[in-house]
Design a protein that fits this description.
Layout lengths: L1 H19 L7 H12 L2 H4 L5 H16 L6 H26 L4 H13 L1 H7 L5 H15 L6 H14 L7 H9 L6 H27 L4 H9 L18 H12 L5 H22 L1 H18 L14 H19 L4 H25 L6 H12 L5 E4 L3 H7 L4 E4 L7 H13 L4 E4 L5 H6 L4 E8 L2 E7 L2
Parallel strand pairs: 1-2, 1-3
Antiparallel strand pairs: 3-5, 4-5
Helix pairs in contact: 1-5, 2-4, 2-19, 4-5, 5-6, 5-7, 5-8, 6-16, 6-17, 8-9, 9-11, 10-15, 14-15, 14-16, 15-16, 16-17, 18-19
């Protein structure tokens, strides 16, 4: 009974914590997805790298709008992330309890997961990672049983991959769990693989036939590449590659996962390392599975965007699992029952307070989001029918928060004449074009050489200029 009540209580506490401190960081991908949700643009909701997230977000928002809640999509998607993040914490607690780890220690480690800086930040943002990680945690829960059901584990893992394709790197840990279960036969492993591959393949095939419907192999390839082909030329580009610099970036990110600085992060990593060594004696199957989990993801993310912290969102669950094993070992070594758990609880509370006051609350202040304030300012000093030249995050902020039409510079690079013609055309139709001059990159400035401008408003170093037809 405690195995069910404790996770439910923790879920309620964590989801209330997350919902009480909403984010105003509004990352690019979340806002872009919110735009597609509000437009009902299914083709742009099914991304090749995270197939299911946009559709889930769309259905989630549609449900609340049907019930009379008129919140904008980005806010409803933040609520969805908070619920998924808290649900993953609850599942994690249930997993630890099944390992016969002390309930109070399990609760402390699970709360540690919830308040770790990276996990907390992205559990209150509109983003893809909480969805895939939730299903991955369900796969983890199934695989840690003494006799897991391979088809069920494969299905949960497939749902995680549809949440984000990077979760395919969980496969080594999954196979390790299956091969060390009470019935480690080839047929069970094959059923897991068939469920995983079959569900993912069927979902992609259905999406291609029903929604994307590419007109050529080139369009199919571009959609499948997803984030690896974001350039205007739609060419494949792997951002990263194995290198000493990439490993250093990956390592520095590892020290920041927990928050409160690299010294605290390094200490918790050392504790997890001790837990891995100790766990291989007392909880061999669980500890080895956590190590395979971390290693599998490291293979990918040391060479793909190694400096991007958000890809490490799911690393925190196996890390806190190993930390729980370390504290359990300390209890046995010292022959004291409560002191190590109380010490961990103290660390978790201090970590949570630090991350709340130094990271989460500041991220929830709209005034600290300069890009958001610029978009709101643009909406005040330009007419409703205006087009605004945009780049970087303004590509989504200006249309979503500023309610102005975006004229994206990335499509005019190397074609200054085409941009000038576009400005003339808009002006002739009574749709004025504006630009925030200080935000232009040097290459973008070259596109506007020879274009007349009239200053409309100034805010510090930023100037809104109206572009005039020649």
């Amino acid at each position: 009974m405690a195995e069910r009540r404790a996770p439910a209580a923790l879920f309620a506490a964590v989801v209330l914590l997350y919902l009480s401190v909403p984010s105003a960081m509004y990352n690019f991908d979340g806002v872009a997805c919110a735009i597609a949700v509000e437009l009902g643009d299914l083709e742009h909701l099914v991304h090749g790298n995270h197939l299911a997230y946009g559709l889930v977000a769309f259905l989630w928002c549609k449900l609340w709008w049907a019930l009379g809640c008129q919140w904008r999509a980005v806010y409803l998607m933040q609520v969805l992330s908070s619920i998924l993040g808290a649900a993953s914490v609850a599942v994690f607690l249930r997993i630890l309890l099944r390992q016969k780890i002390d309930p109070w220690l399990s609760a402390a480690a699970s709360l540690g997961l919830a308040v770790s800086a990276l996990y907390w930040i992205w559990s209150v943002e509109a983003q893809v990672y909480p969805l895939g990680t939730f299903f991955l945690m369900l796969a983890f829960a199934e695989l840690t049983r003494d006799t897991p059901k391979p088809a069920a584990a494969g299905a949960w893992h497939a749902a995680g991959v549809l949440g984000h394709v990077g979760h395919v790197m969980f496969a080594p840990a999954a196979y390790r769990f299956l091969l060390t279960s009470r019935k480690p036969d080839v047929a069970r492993v094959a059923r897991y693989g068939a469920a995983l591959a079959g569900i993912v393949a069927a979902a992609y095939a259905a999406t291609l036939v029903c929604i994307v419907r590419p007109a050529s192999f080139g369009e199919f390839r571009y959609w499948m590449l997803g984030s690896a082909a974001l350039g205007v030329d739609k060419k494949f580009a792997w951002v990263g590659g194995y290198s000493g610099e990439g490993f250093l970036e990956w390592g520095m990110n590892a020290l920041r996962l927990f928050g409160a600085g690299p010294i605290v992060g390094g200490g918790l990593w050392l504790l997890a390392g001790f837990g891995a060594v100790a766990g291989l004696r007392r909880h061999r199957r669980f500890a080895a599975g956590c190590l395979f989990w971390l290693a599998g993801y490291a293979v990918l993310y040391t060479c793909w965007h190694p400096g991007q912290p958000v890809y490490r969102y799911s690393d925190l669950a196996p890390l806190w699992g190993l930390i729980a094993l370390a504290v359990e070992e300390a209890q046995a070594l010292r022959r004291v029952r409560k002191a190590p758990t109380l010490a961990l609880a103290g660390v978790v509370l201090a970590l949570g307070y630090w991350n709340l006051t130094r990271v989460v609350i500041p991220n929830g202040m709209p005034g600290r989001n300069e890009e958001l304030q610029r978009a709101l300012w643009i909406s005040k000093v330009t007419p409703h029918e205006a087009w605004v030249i945009v780049d970087d995050i303004d590509q989504v902020y200006v249309p979503y928060f500023g309610h102005r039409h975006p004229l994206n510079l990335r499509y005019f690079q190397g074609r200054p004449g085409a941009l000038r013609e576009r400005i003339k055309e808009s002006t002739r139709r009574g749709q004025p074009v504006y630009v925030v001059v200080s935000e232009l990159q040097p290459l973008s400035q070259d596109l506007l050489d020879g274009v007349s401008m009239r200053q409309v408003a100034r805010r510090g170093a930023e100037v809104v200029e109206q572009l005039l037809a020649e």
